[in-house]
Write a structure and sequence with these properties.
This protein is of the alpha/beta class. It folds into 2 domains: 144 residues, Aspartate Aminotransferase, domain 1 (Alpha-Beta Complex), CATH 3.90.1150; 236 residues, 3-Layer(aba) Sandwich (Aspartate Aminotransferase, domain 2), CATH 3.40.640.10. The strands form 3 sheets. Strands 2-8-7-6-5-3-4 form a 7-stranded mixed beta sheet. Helix 7 links the parallel strand 5 and strand 6. Helix 12 packs parallel to helix 15. The protein starts with 9 loop residues before the first helix and ends with a helix.
């Protein structure tokens, strides 16, 4: 029966994740979420009943082809892409963005400019920085070290008529701040440049709508959004058609997304993706989806509300400890931040804290989280980086309280 209650029904949510029936509390979700049972079921179904090559005339191959296409269509629907051909599936965000940079390279001339940030995961920095070898000018949009913000005025000062692309994160996997991607897109496009967004730390928490954001490229990891170890790169179709391919020379330039997928995508994992948007749609139905709100929007509104409670719980505790410094916005407002919360403790190296929680079966981490440039620029490497607690919608307030109880003994 539908649950019309305004809050997220955690019993309903958690029954979809078999791993949550164990004894561990998972607060390292920004590194990889737990997987939905229906995703695993679809992967198994593909392997047991249609594990053949695509594109042949016989029935099982036709079934396999349709299942892989269904995965692409499901992802296009989930992110509101205009065409399933705009969805490129691959092994990881790092691999897909490196592929994109290599395909982008022949379109550039010496003196062209690319802007990166110092707040991104390295996946959206080094592939672009390496183009300096081709005479491309790389500029860095830096986080304000006091406010931990990427200031739009600083970006505006970096943009010139020579700017070809800006690479930025939607949410820093350290800071947790939601950056104003649509405002960034408008600013970048007004200068005649393109925008490439790393959405890895945003997509598990909020609805991705690539058309509303008006991004040119957008990528995120599907194993961090309750799916298998795979990733997605969105690109506007006209841009993908114009870019050189990454596949064999005889693959036609019009063959998108295949011209960017040497060897194709993982067939079974692609079919498994069909279960992800279906899960969120089931969450919406269970909670009495209003007639005038789309199911994905309704589900993620409930998730945002729940994450706000988790934010408030943990941040209130951390604020009560004078030795703790929040690295990122200290607000619990879920419109401004996701439930990825990083901190350092005066007098305690960050690497000393997570191991003390292991005995209590609470999983968190410390380090630079592949945002090494940010951690170095903030002067936090000597402290072994930050302690990061990354919660998602299947985490409960009780789990958060359990963490707080143990942290209180340490801090």
């Amino acid at each position: 029966m539908p649950n019309p209650a305004p809050g997220l029904d955690l019993d309903f949510v958690r029954q979809h994740f078999p791993a949550l029936a164990g004894d561990w509390v998972f607060f390292d979700n920004a590194g990889g979420s737990q997987i939905l049972k229906p995703v695993v079921d679809r992967i198994t179904e593909f392997l047991y009943t249609s594990n053949v090559q695509l594109g042949a005339s016989y029935t099982v191959s036709q079934q396999a082809t349709a299942r892989v296409a269904a995965g692409e269509k499901a992802m296009a629907r989930w992110i509101n892409a205009a065409d399933p051909a705009e969805v490129i599936l691959g092994p990881s965000t790092s691999a897909l963005l490196r592929m994109l940079a290599q395909c982008f390279r022949p379109t550039l001339q010496p003196g062209d400019e690319i802007i990166v940030t110092n707040a991104d995961h390295e996946a959206n920095i080094s592939p672009w920085v390496e183009l300096e070898r081709e005479g491309i000018v790389i500029k860095t949009w830096r986080v304000n070290p006091v406010t931990f913000e990427l200031e739009l005025a600083d970006l505006e000062a970096l943009l010139t008529p020579h700017t070809r692309l800006v690479a930025v994160t939607h949410v820093s996997n350290v800071l947790g701040t939601v950056n104003p991607v649509r405002a960034i897109a408008d600013l970048v496009h007004a200068q005649g440049a393109l925008l490439c967004v790393d959405g890895v730390a945003f997509a598990p928490h909020r609805r991705v709508d690539v058309q509303a954001l008006d991004v040119d490229f957008y990528s995120f990891s599907l194993y961090k959004v309750y799916g298998p170890h795979q990733a997605l790169l969105y690109g506007k179709k006209e841009l993908l058609l114009a870019l050189p391919g990454y596949n064999h020379f005889f693959i036609e330039d019009t063959a998108v997304p295949y011209k960017f997928q040497p060897g194709g995508s993982s067939y079974e994992l692609s079919y498994g993706l069909t279960a992800i948007p279906e899960y969120f749609e089931s969450v919406a139905r269970h909670h009495g989806q209003p007639a005038d709100v789309g199911p994905l929007d309704h589900a993620f509104a409930l998730i945002q509300q729940h994450e706000g409670r988790l934010n408030e719980r943990l941040l209130s505790f951390l604020h009560s400890r004078p030795s703790v410094r929040i690295i990122g916005r200290d607000t619990a407002d879920p419109t401004q931040r996701v439930s990825t919360i990083s901190f350092v403790v005066e007098g305690i190296s960050s690497d000393k804290i997570p191991p003390q929680l292991d005995a209590h079966q609470i999983g968190i981490r410390y380090g630079h989280f592949y945002a090494l440039r940010l951690i170095e620029d903030l002067g936090l490497m000597a402290n072994q980086g930050v302690v990061r607690v990354s919660m998602v919608h299947y985490n409960t307030v009780e789990e958060c309280d359990h963490l707080i109880e143990q942290l209180a003994e340490i801090l």
